[in-house]
Every structure is written in C-alpha cells, then in structure tokens.
Amino acid sequence: xxxxxxxxxxxxxxxxxxxxxxxxxxxxxxxxxxxxxxxxxxxxxxxxxxxxxxxxxxxxxxxxxxxxxxxxxxxxxxxxxxxxxxxxxxxxxxxxxxxxxxxxxxxxxxxxxxxxxxxxxxxxxxxxxxxxxxxxxxxxxxxxxxxxxxxxxxxxxxxxxxxxxxxxxxxxxxxxxxxxxxxxxxxxxxxxxxxxxxxxxxxxxxxxxxxxxxxxxxxxxxxxxxxxxxxxxxx
Amino acid sequence: xxxxxxxxxxxxxxxxxxxxxxxxxxxxxxxxxxxxxxxxxxxxxxxxxxxxxxxxxxxxxxxxxxxxxxxxxxxxxxxxxxxxxxxxxxxxxxxxxxxxxxxxxxxxxxxxxxxxxxxxxxxxxxxxxxxxxxxxxxxxxxxxxxxxxxxxxxxxxxxxxxxxxxxxxxxxxxxxxxxxxxxxxxxxxxxxxxxxxxxxxxxxxxxxxxxxxxxxxxxxxxxxxxxxxxxxxxxxxxxxxxxxxxxxxxxxxxxxxxxxxxxxxxxxxxxxxxxxxxxxxxxxxxx
Amino acid sequence: xxxxxxxxxxxxxxxxxxxxxxxxxxxxxxxxxxxxxxxxxxxxxxxxxxxxxxxxxxxxxxxxxxxxxxxxxxxxxxxxxxxxxxxxxxxxxxxxxxxxxxxxxxxxxxxxxxxxxxxxxxxxxxxxxxxxxxxxxxxxxxxxxxxxxxxxxxxxxxxxxxxxxxxxxxxxxxxxxxxxxxxxxxxxxxxxxxxxxxxxxxxxxxxxxxxxxxxxxxxxxxxxxxxxxxxxxxxxxxxxxxxxxxxxxxxxxxxxxxxxxxxxxxxxxxxxxxxxxxxxxxxxxxxxxxxxxxxxxxxxxxxxxxxxxxxxxxxxxxxxxxxxxxxxxxxxxxxxxxxxxxxxxxxxxxxx
Lengths: 235, 287, 352
What we know:
The complex is a heterotrimer. Helix content of chain A is 33%, strand content 25%. Chain A is globular, with a radius of gyration of 17 Å. Chain A is α/β, with parallel strands linked by helices. In chain A, α3 (95-101) packs parallel to α6 (137-149). By secondary structure, chain B is mainly α. Chain B has a single domain, classed as Orthogonal Bundle (ABC transporter involved in vitamin B12 uptake, BtuC). In chain B, strands 1-2 form a two-stranded antiparallel ribbon. Chain C has one domain (3-343): Orthogonal Bundle (ABC transporter involved in vitamin B12 uptake, BtuC). Helices cover 74% and strands 3% of the residues of chain C. Chain C is built from 16 helices and 4 strands. In chain C, the strands form 2 sheets. Chain C has a two-stranded antiparallel sheet with strand order 1-4. In chain C, strands 2-3 form a two-stranded antiparallel sheet. Chain C is globular and about 60 Å long. Chain B binds chain C through residues 33-34, 36, 82, 85-86, 91-97, 99-108, 110-111, 219, 222-223, 226-227, 230, 234, 260, 263-264, 267-268, 270-271, 274-275, 278, and chain C through 58, 62, 64, 66, 111, 114-115, 117-119, 121-123, 125-127, 129-130, 133-134, 136-137, 260-261, 265, 268-269, 272, 276, 300-302, 304-305, 307-312, 315-316, 319.
C-alpha cells in the first residue's frame, strides 16, 4: 500500500478551478517528481497535500488515514513537511531559529538535528546567527530544506527548489537528496527542469492544465511522450 | 534642582505608561491588531484585584498574582472566540468590534461597581519614599518603574529565547508558512492576547495602588498607551518604554508649569514626535 | 433597441416620489406636531447628519475616525464664540461653525494621515482630546465649566419672531421649530450632497480607493487627494451639525461638546447597525437607534452596553448592517450608485 495517495483531488480559487481530479501515489522510500509547465497545477497540488488548501477528507490519504480536510499544522504533525515555493524563510528569525522552528509542531527524534542538518549543508553552520533573509538564494533554499527536515518527516514535499538558482547551486542542493532518502523520507519534488526531475525521481508525473497527463518511470518515458504531456499533443 | 526632581518623577511615571502600553505593543507586533478596549481591560483588571482584596482580604500584590491566570484565560478566550474572527485585510471589523467591546465593558463596569471612584488599599511600605540628597522618590513609583523594566526584559526573553517566542515572530512574519511548521496561528494569537492581559493585570495593580480609578478612565489609559507605542516605534518593546518615559516627563513638566497643562503636554509631546519621526524612535526594519 | 447606462432602478424612482412626499410632510411637521415631537425629530436629523458624514469617512473613504467630537465641539464653540464675543446673530453664525471645523481639520489631517488604519483612529481621538483641553483653557467662554448663550441673543434670533406670529407659539417653541427646520435643511443637503458626490467621477474614484488603493493609483486616482477631500467635507458638515445642536441646547461645556460617546460612539453604532458604506444605512440606523433609546434610555448603562454588544454582533454576522441584509434579500437600492446597463433585447434587467 502506498504511503501517500491523492484520489480525485479537486482545487479551486474562487471561480477558477486549478485541479480536476488528480490521482497520485507515493510509495514508502520512493521519490517522485511532478513536472509540468507554469500554471499546470503543480504548486496547487502541493498546497493541497500540505493542507494550505483544504479538501474532501478522502481526497488525500497518508499512512491509511484520511487527511484531506486537516489544516496544515495537523498534517505537518503527522509527518508531512513542506519546503514551500519561494523558500518563505521568516525574516525575523536567524538561520538557526528558522531551522529550530521546524520542530515546533513535531518533536520527532530521528536522524535530523541541528547538527546533522548543518553537516548536510555546512555553510549554514557558519551563517547560523545571520538573519535568514541575509543569505544568498541557494543558501536560503538550504535553510528552507533544513527547516522541513528538522521535524524528521516521513514525507518531504519540495516545491520548485531550483527556481531562480544558478545551475551549479542547483547541483549542490540536489546532492542532498540521497542523504535525505537514506534517513528514511519519501520525497515529492516539483520541478520545471525535466532533466533534473528524471535524474532524481523513481517515478515521474506530468501535469497539464490541472490534470495528470502522463506517469511512469524515467526509463519508460520517451522524450516525445513527455513533450506531448507537457505542452499538449496537438500543437 | 526642582527640575531634576520633576524629570525624575516624570521618568518614573513613564514606567506606568509603559506598563499600560506593553500589552498593546505585544498584540500589535504579533497580529497587527489594535485593541480599542485595552484601557477598559486595564480598569477591569483593577476591579478584579479590588474584588479579590475585599472578598478574600488579600494584599493587592497577592490578589494581582491570583488575577493573572484569570486574565490570561479571559484574553485567550477573547482572542480565540471573538477577535480572531475579525482579522483580515479589512481594517473596519477589528476596530469596530473592539470599540463596541470598549463601550460594553465600560458600562458593564459602571453597572456592577457604580461610578464611585475606588482605590486599592496601600500599606506603610507603598506610601514610603526614599530620600536621596535633596530628592525624594516614592517607593511606589520606583516599584512601578522596576516592574515595567522587568516586564519588558521578560517579554524580550520570551521573544528571543524561547520556542513560543520564535513561534510568535514566525507567525507575525507569515501565518501561512507558520502553519506549515505546525504552528496554529489562531492559538498563537490567543496566547499572545492572554499574555497581554497578564501585563494588563500588572498595569492594573499599579493603577489602583497609585491613584483612584472608576469605570470611565479606560479610554484615557488607552490613549497614553497608544502614544507610548507610536513614539517608541510600532512593535519595539524598549521603544515603548522610551515612549512611556517621554509622555511621563512631558506630563510632569507641563504640570510643573501649570497643573491644568499636565495631560495636554503629554499629547503635544506625542504630536511633536509624530511630526519629526512619523515611524517612531525605534521603528522595525521590515513592516 | 438602444442600450442606455443609468444608475436608476425602478425602486429608486418610486423612492424618489415617496421621498418628495416625505420631505413635504417633514417641512409641514411643525404645523401639526407638538413640541416634544419636534425636539425628537431634531435629535434624529442631527444624528443622521453626523452619521452620514462619519459613513462618508469610514464607509467610503476607509478613514475610521474616533475623533469626530473635535469637529462637533469646534463647531459648537465657534457658535458661542461668534455670538458672545462678536455679537453675531446665531443663525448666520452657524456658517462659522463649519469653517471653524475646517480650520481644525487641516492640522488634524496633517498629523493623522501620517498614521495608518487603527492608528489613524486613535490619532484623531488624541487630537480631539487636545482640542478639548485647549478649549477648556478658554476662560472667556467659561473654561472647563462652560457657558450659556445669552438670552437676548437667542430670543431675537432671525426668523424666531416670524415663527412666533405665524404659528402662534411662544419664543422657546419657536426656537425649537427654527432649529428643526435648519436641521431638516442640513440633513437634506447632506444626503443630497453625498449622493451627488458619490455619483460624480470623484465618487467613483472614491469607491475605487476604498476597494484597493494600489489598483486605484494604477488607473490614475490620486488617493491622497481623495482622502483630503473626504476628510475636510466631513469635518465641515460635522461642524455645521455641531453648531446647530448647540444652538438648540443653548448651553455648552467642553466635556459635553467634545464627548466621544455622544458624538462618535453613538454615531459609529448608528452606521454599523444600519449598514456601513450605503446612504440608506445611516437612515435605518438612526431610526433603530432612536427606537432603542426611547425603549432603554431609562436603563442608563444597560442601554450603552446593549448598543456595544449589538454593534459587535452585527459586525460579525452581518457586516453590511440591517440595510445590507434587506438590500441583499430584495435587491432594493434607494440611492443607487452603481451604473447599470439597460435596454437591448431585455428591458430593465435587474442585476443582483
């Protein structure tokens, strides 16, 4: 049985419907990637799973429990942590405090502590007393990932973690993924960079206009199939 | 020498105003809410202490200690069940609801305790004064000022040294992302107002010990508190103390020239600061 | 068939006819009603004027002021000042009341506009306190204890003699009737003026500023200028009302003329209960307020407590007030401001 599933997940912003019945599965110790163009509904999907947007209770299941209708803080306490799009560090908090706030709602002992997070991203140890927002974009992204890891989540949701970063910085950040997997987390990454997504994920879902248009393992998907699923088949 | 004495008395009076203002500053800093019933809540706190003193025969200090958890719960519930429902982009609901609350509270106090002025009982210690050369400082004003400094030190410790303080600051920055960290903003806001009412209880204790009070004096306390907060810079706790001191010194100086000018001088000092430093003396970097 | 854009609705046309009849009745009221009715109506009309101006500020301008008592008091003291010190007849002196309020309003706005939202609210209150404390120092007008209008000034007022002979009433009653007619004229001018203002280009800009300052700026609405216009207009009207109220009272003190309860709290409750952001709201509100006061005024503080609680409940469950509830149910607009498209294939389509 998968660790986390969505079934017929629907989301609206007022009159605008952003998701039209999305079904995805995330297995234990699996990493999946969600790819798609801007406006495909990837971020909405993540916000729905994390509880920022509320749904029908049975639209999202985690570890057998219906969590679709729960608020974000309760979902986080169950072990689903999110690295939000745009990093969203707290400007009033130092780097260390930003990391520590990750444990507020879930005090789960496990691999990740202030020490191990700083081992994963050594630059954070040097900068730990700086305000979170005084860091470079890549360093801020490391804080945002570390902050989510501090709760020792079972599922880590990473929304557009490479957005706006230089390729060399993106490589640095993705280098952390094996360690995160090794510590026992299942991961969903939202990525616009298809090559990056295919490299990191066990399986890939492609979304377009609020629907899943393609899914499978990276080997099984041809470039053409992905292209069609990404931009539509009849252009 | 008389001027030194006047200014010292003003600084100590500023401690009382800082106590009035600290709760207002805390609540504004965390949830951008201005509670127009703040002054009336201080007066209500004074009546609660008076009630405990008369019914149980306690000393006012002990009575205030018992009143604190009661006021905390009241503030918590007030925020959770009433004020949280008014938060949002529109500024009208919080203003009008707290204004309605102010009027309702004032008149509930009038109905329960009548318009007669009251005072908390004082003993020899609290009416004593320290003679320092030619200057004599009352024990009570000194105690008030020390309490104000202690409250602000305590709040700073809470804000910058505890997990709850981190959650306060994070929620103030961004409630949605705070939710992703397992923080329930509604509960954080309720806790903040609870703590604000604990400070209100301390302010109420000194209000009642130092002077007479009646149900109608709440709005004036709100105004002094507000002036201290604005002068200090929104959300800055030490700034609030500085603001309280400026109002206090302006009032005692004004009163020294002409007793009728006491209150007016405080207001004019506020307007002058507003003219020169519209964002207060110690504004927060990001707002 | 051609399209036409208008702000009229069928209901507003019926309301216009009913309104004209109502105005005639109100003008004729002193011929048929007794003195206590006239005094009640004076109270209702002056509170309505204050409520309309506060609504213009808060409901349309987004400027929540708790300092309107500054302008009531300034107007009232200007009346007493010009009558007592300069010997001006009280009736023309009312014009000075509006001007005095304007004079206070300019520095008030200068300070208060530096504050946002809730801080603007308390800022206006602080300034009202400053004005009250300064006026308390004005010994010629009685200082902190206040003073009365001299008897000969009120007895010989313009029109009073004519009203005495025409209606066959005593001087005191004639004074009340004069005050009532002036209040009626002021209320009609206020409603008419605000309605006109809101239907002009300026008024539409005002709605834009209220809805979204940034968006309004981007289409070229000068939000700062609109705030000034609204604030000064409200101050002027509130000052006129203040002068009129104290012409009728004939006795003044700083605490009464600058009372935050009488001139701001009551007014806010009237607007909130009736419905903020509409012209109809304050009218409904003042009637409810008067009914409540007649029923509950004997209970003193219970009455104010009820008003406070009622305002909280309305703000939470029906933020557009009683008129908002009625208007949402029935689609009724007596003072329609939105422009409606009609004509074409379907005539007179009501938009919800």
